[in-house]
TrEMBL record:
Keyword annotations from UniProtKB, A to Z: Membrane, Transmembrane, Transmembrane helix
Record GO terms (molecular function): hydrolase activity
Protein name as annotated: Adipocyte plasma membrane-associated protein
GO CC aspect terms: endomembrane system
Annotated TM spans: 292-311
Record bears the keyword Transmembrane helix: yes
InterPro entries: 6-blade_b-propeller_TolB-like
Pfam families, per the entry: SSL_N
Gene3D superfamilies: TolB, C-terminal domain
Amino acid sequence: MPPKLVGVLEPNNELEKAEIVLPNQFIGPESMAVRYNSNIVYTGLLNGIVARFEINDSSERDMRVKETRLPTPSSFNTDICDGSYASFPICGRPMGMRFHPSNDDLLYVADAYYGIYEYNIQTDKYMLILMIYRLLLYHFPSNELTVLVDGLYYPNGVQFDYLERCVFFSEMGNLRILKHCLASGYGSFSVVMDNLPGYPDNLRATRDFMLWVPFGETRLKDDSWLTEKPWLMDFIATIASPSLISKTYDTFFSSKHGLMLLIDPYDKVILKSFHDPNGTTISSISQVRCPLVSLFLLFCAACVTCFCAMLQ
């Protein structure tokens, strides 16, 4: 059973105050990266495009959008890249994004179908550096690839701790957040938080290294028949198309309750929750970032209501 929404999880209307930006301009923004010391944001879209836009923190915000495309087979025929599931194997699906820690001209883009690309935003050139299909650690100087933890159900949302010795990540299929320390060896992990009120997506750290935990979906009152059987989710995924699963879920099972948490992963406590109980403004979030001192940037994960939003 999902946890009761009481105490720090008590529903509120914080997310209803968010402002939708760039409406109808993006098809399925997922992850995002903010260039250091700037308001320039990059995000990957359902149609295989990496989009760039800049936010001017004023009453008249400057939203100039620039688009580029990964060098996939679709580069020769972009008409087929309509954001449908059938187009993903050809057009790619850029998801995770991070800037190089010491060179913010280099953006690393993890594509779900083609691997990890290094994108030079000055020259507008891409280079494929790694093909991946699991949760791995890649060490750039030595060109070494290491499997950290295997046998997980939909791992996602990787975030290093402040010493860069341990990594936090979501295990979406098991509704929990895990921690793996590099010195502890292959396969080891500890549970930071489990039985979450929703399906956790991309984790990101705050300036004091607390964690933002967005939820693509919050849980129904009794969803144990599915959430306690991740093998059943795997089975359903093998017999039904992604588009059918998505449409069925949105129609019959989606709670339309927008939710994100701020947690302390070291003391393993929830510090604050942000809700939109009726999905009035935000019903699904894939990532949270804070590029400005007082500005949150939210990305919606639901493909039928794709948008970016800001919360002051």
